[in-house]
């Protein structure tokens, strides 16, 4: 299946994935991690990268051999059948009520820091953000990729400027002794930090839009993950060096406050704009991925349905409109009930880890050789991450159980017409 335009290259793929992983986390999560584990967070990032690496290898192999806009749901369908695929697809979409409101909260917070917006102004920013994503979605994935390559460059440049002006060097960073680290704070920090490495499953939905998915998709995934991991570690080192975390300071204000210390008050708006663009990039790739999932699932069942139609640029604009409408309703509900940001993040993480687990299990059945070994290791690591998240994984477990029971079973999936 693919009426989607195949135009993504390696650089565009790296830009898409790195901004997806950096996005909403790069300004907030390093400070949250430092607040939970203090200097132990310097060790937590390498540990997390090691934990995620086998999962990334398995995703890269699945995307390389089975490129499809259905992403995780497609992998699960091949391994476990159509009913499990439908459950997985809807489970991924259940992130919308918790994950996207959290991302929009972080994004609008930068406007508040830069321009002092009140509550109504912040809601308008969130609405405007969704509108811009819709306008960008009218074009093909290549347009989003080009924008996000630029955003990735701005994020890296900002972190490099902080290190340069702040006189931070690898030799000046004080690593805590491993013997002094406590397991409980590290586990708590990792549960929050995993938010920064959700995006692999979203990126999988774009595999079918690469010009050469077998070559460029796995390379883009692994390079993008390492770029993002390096930037996160660099941000954490800066936050610790300036002790810009904890107390009354909002987590998302940590890096902007460092920029102000180093470059003056006039630089605040620059940091806030970069922060907003980072959040926008992550929101963009997720909503585009959600749209591709909705489009692919509908296309398989009812290829002539409104949601299954592509725009003139061969993008799933109708599906994107539906996703953005759901996102708007969820964000308004989160605002009305005053849901806390960290709770939204951890609940969303439970869903993502659960989906990762299903994909790793699919890899155990579909892949061969070293990729299959990585899938088995990834399965064990996903179970470990679920244990770290603790009781908040109940949201994912309950959603999975409800979807399994409620969604109707179909013996056969209608074939899409030949293209």
TrEMBL record:
A GO term from the CC aspect: plasma membrane
Family annotation (Pfam families): AA_permease_2
InterPro entries registered for this protein in UniProt: AA/rel_permease1 (IPR002293), APC_superfamily (IPR050367)
Keywords, alphabetical: Cell membrane, Membrane, Transmembrane, Transmembrane helix
Bilayer topology annotation: Multi-pass membrane protein
Coarse class of the protein's main subcellular location: membrane
Record's subcellular location: Cell membrane
MF terms (GO), sorted A to Z: transmembrane transporter activity
Transmembrane segments: 43-66, 87-107, 119-137, 149-166, 186-208, 220-246, 266-286, 319-338, 344-364, 376-407
Protein name: L-methionine/branched-chain amino acid transporter
Source organism of the structure: Limnobaculum eriocheiris
Encoding gene per record: yjeH
């Amino acid at each position: 299946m693919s009426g989607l335009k195949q135009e993504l290259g390696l650089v565009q793929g790296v830009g898409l994935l790195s901004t997806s992983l950096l996005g909403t986390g790069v300004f907030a999560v390093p400070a949250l991690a430092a607040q939970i584990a203090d200097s132990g967070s310097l060790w937590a990032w390498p540990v997390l990268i090691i934990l995620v690496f086998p999962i990334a290898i398995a995703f890269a192999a699945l995307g390389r051999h089975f490129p499809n806009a259905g992403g995780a749901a497609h992998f699960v369908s091949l391994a476990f059948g159509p009913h499990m695929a439908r459950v997985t697809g809807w489970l991924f979409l259940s992130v919308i009520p918790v994950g996207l409101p959290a991302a929009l909260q972080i994004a609008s917070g930068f406007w508040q820091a830069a321009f002092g917006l009140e509550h109504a102004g912040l809601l308008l920013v969130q609405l405007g953000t969704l509108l811009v994503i819709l306008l960008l979605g009218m074009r093909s994935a290549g347009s989003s990729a080009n924008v996000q390559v630029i955003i990735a460059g701005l994020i890296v440049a900002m972190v490099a400027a902080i290190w340069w002006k702040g006189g931070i060097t690898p030799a000046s960073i004080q690593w805590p002794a491993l013997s002094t680290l406590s397991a409980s704070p590290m586990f708590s920090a990792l549960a929050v930090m995993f938010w920064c490495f959700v995006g692999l499953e979203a990126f999988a939905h774009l595999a079918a839009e690469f010009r050469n998915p077998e070559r460029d998709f796995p390379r883009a995934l692994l390079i993008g993950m390492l770029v993002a991991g390096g930037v996160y570690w660099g941000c954490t080192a800066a936050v610790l060096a300036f002790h810009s975390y904890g107390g009354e300071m909002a987590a998302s204000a940590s890096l902007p406050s460092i920029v102000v210390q180093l470059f003056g008050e006039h630089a605040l708006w620059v940091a806030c704009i970069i922060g907003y663009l980072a959040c926008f990039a992550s929101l963009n790739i997720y909503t585009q991925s959600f749209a591709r999932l909705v489009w692919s699932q509908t296309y398989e069942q009812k290829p002539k349905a409104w949601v299954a139609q592509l725009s003139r640029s061969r993008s799933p604009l109708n599906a994107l409109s539906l996703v953005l409408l759901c996102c708007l309703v969820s964000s308004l509900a989160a605002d009305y009930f005053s849901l806390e940001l960290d709770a939204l993040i951890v609940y969303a993480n439970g869903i993502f880890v659960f989906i990762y687990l299903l994909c790793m299990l699919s890899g155990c059945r579909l892949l061969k050789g070293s990729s299959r070994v990585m899938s088995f290791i990834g399965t064990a690591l996903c179970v470990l991450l679920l244990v770290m998240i603790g009781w908040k994984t109940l949201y994912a477990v309950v959603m999975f159980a409800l979807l399994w029971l409620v969604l109707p079973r179909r013996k056969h999936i209608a074939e899409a017409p030949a293209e």
